[in-house]
Amino acid sequence: MRSLTKKILLLLAAGLDEIADWDKTLTSPYLSLKFISYKDDYFQKIIRQMLKAGQIERIVKRGEPFFRVTSRGKIKLVYDIPLAKRFGQKWDGKWRMVIFDIPEISKTKRDGLRRKLKELGFAQWQKSVYITPFDVAVELAEHLGVNNLSDNAIALEAKKIFVGDEKEMANRLWRLDDLNLKYQNFVEKYQKEKDKKSWEEEYLAILEVDPCLPSDLLPQPWWKNQAKKLVYG
User: Fold this and answer.
1) Low-confidence winner among 15-24, 66-75, 189-198 (lowest mean pLDDT)
2) pLDDT score recorded for residue 173
3) pLDDT value at position 25?
4) How far apart (Å, rounded) are the C-alpha atoms in residues 10 and 194?
5) Which three-class secondary structure state does DSSP give residue 125?
6) Mapping DSSP to helix (H, G, I), strand (E, B) and coil, where does residue 60 land?
């Protein structure tokens, strides 16, 4: 089960347009958390803990509290949910591919690499071939080095791969139509509902399976945009 701290960080991060600018001071606007339906005492306790830990910052406007994720909070968020680092990230037009051949005797390491690739936003193209539009060279090199897999895997970067339509490929590999339908159903279910209890659970469930692909590769219309407006106002 997700911790409330993790939920709050993820919801705040997903609402910030500039969250992908991880190496600079976060200048995105503060967001309200009024749509989160928790008992006041428990929710306030967690908020106080997060403020004390420096994971979020708070201001009050017109009597309403607004929050944003701090640099320390971003570190925790990326540790818990690596794909959160990709929120709003623009694509440089390059593809990264990992090909590996790990013997059965090292099955544990092989399975661990597959999990890591999924965490980093890769999709499985073939059994031992994974692809992503994200620049994850540092994270990948670290994993391969720590697990002594540098001789068992090769990473490639290409400006163009000849697979036909890249958007169609992305749609197929990451099942974007299915994801888009989840966002659409969310919007249609709640757009006329004023009581926002349990919204965050359903929205979080979708966010956690969203590969956060660059807009260049997404189908249109992309219903996540409407869902975001609905949740954050």
Assistant:
1) 15-24
2) 96
3) 47
4) 23
5) strand
6) strand
Q: In what order do the strands lie in the sheet with 123-126?
A: 123-126, 129-132, 95-100, 153-158
Where residue 232 falls (left for φ over 0; alpha for ψ -120 to 50; beta otherwise) is alpha
Q: Which two tokens stand for residue 61?
A: 């406007």
Q: What is the mean pLDDT of the chain?
A: 84
Q: How far lies 44's CA from each of 34, 39, 120, 197, 231, in Å? A: 12, 8, 33, 17, 20
CA distance 36 to 12: 11
Between CA 189 and CA 199 the distance in angstroms is 10
Q: How many other C-beta atoms can be found within 10 angstroms of the C-beta atom of residue 173? A: 19
Contact 183, 225 (CB under 8 A): no
- On the question of pLDDT at 19 being above 80, the answer is no
Categorize the per-residue pLDDT at 123 as very low, low, confident or very high, splitting at 50, 70 and 90.
Answer: very high
* Cα dihedral value 70, 142, 212, 75, nearest 10: -10
